[in-house]
Amino acid sequence: MHELLCPSCNAPSQHDLQDYLLMCPFCSTTFSFDKESGTKTLYTDHYIIPNGIDAGQVKGLVKEWLKRLHHQPGRVDKEYFVTEVQGVSLPCWLISLEAHTKWQGLVKRQANRAIDTAAGSEYLPESGVFRRTYRWAVHARRNLHEVWGVDLLHEPKESVRVDWDGFPFDSTFSRGQINLSLGAKIQKEGRADTLAAYDAREMFDFKFGNSLPILGIQVEEEEALRRCKTHIMRYHHELAKLHVDQLVDIRSELEIAGTQLLHVPFWQAKYVYRPVSVLKHFSPAREKHVVVEGYAGGLLTGELPIVKNEKMWINTWVTAALALVFFIAGAGIHPSLFLVGGFFLVVALVSGYLATLRASKEAQEKLKLLDASA
Ligand SMILES: [Zn+2]
């Protein structure tokens, strides 16, 4: 940490010179500092989306979401516990752009229409263009895992596998809203229903963190632009592939209209499942995560509550225990009880095997929150 004088209000404060941009804690001025020359340059395109919710409301939203997913909503309050709620204002680079993509490829003919026998005749050439505009967000923190789940916020409508961390800001910050009293309350305060998150942004000021810690800006603008371009190229590549069986050529041109820096409120909550019944002794009680945005309380992403896989593990343990009991009883009371023990052992083995099969699949499975709130 280094002490620097603010170029605007002249107040001294401590700064981490590894950060790309520095923020004065007194007057909220954002500036860069050149270590060699000692020059400070003001950065003026810095905005913040005010945090609008508190920890109690986040807890309520998570509970409400769990109730929607549960086949017996009444049990949620007894069996699910929110163990931790934490909010943070994260910096993102926001790049406004238009992307224009041209593609060509090959589509396979319907099998029974192949009259021509020349080589390659079963394929038809196909081409097309599409154009999209985005306000693309790229995280300005080095470690994408400081807040669980923010590394994969992009959930496109198309069936495309996302493995980039950037996301279209507007569609992300308008999804996952749960219509309960909190949502209504936020709307009454005149924000959510009248303004999209982006339009509610203010010039950066620490006070709009509204109790959330504001994290420093670590990623350079140039890197963010480069990453943004890569994300869009990959996304559009996936989109083009949906049109053809074989993509041959693709060309995407990006027109960057502007770049700005935006601090965005995110909340992460952890919850556990602790059943009231005898099952609790067998349940692993693993902590699961949910990410809520702090503008209108939209649930952006989350890990599903008790999944079949866990139920199968519980089943495995219960039947294995029963098998053991009957084997002991078989040895002590009557040999016919071995048969019952054997039956439970088979059930335990089969369910353990199936649970293992599912485990790998479910490890990657993230919730489509829109489905849950629809
Ligand atoms: Zn200052």
Low-confidence stretches: 363-374
Order of helices and strands: EEEEEEHHEEEHHEHEEEHHH
Helical content band? 25-40%
Please state the CA-atom Rg, rounded to the nearest Å. 27 Å
Write down how many β-strands occur, each being a DSSP E stretch of 2 or more residues. Answer: 13
Shape: flat
Which sheet architecture does the biggest sheet show? Answer: 8 strands, mixed
Average pLDDT, all residues: 88
User: Which hetero ligands occur in this complex?
Assistant: zinc ion
Total of helices: 8
| Helix-strand category | alpha+beta
Describe this structure in words.
The protein has 374 residues and is an alpha+beta fold. Helices cover 29% and strands 29% of the residues. It has 8 helices and 13 strands. The strands form 3 sheets. Strands 6, 7, 8, 9, 10, 11, 12 and 13 form an 8-stranded mixed β-sheet that branches. It is flat, with a radius of gyration of 27 Å. The site of zinc ion (ZN) has 8 residues, from loops.
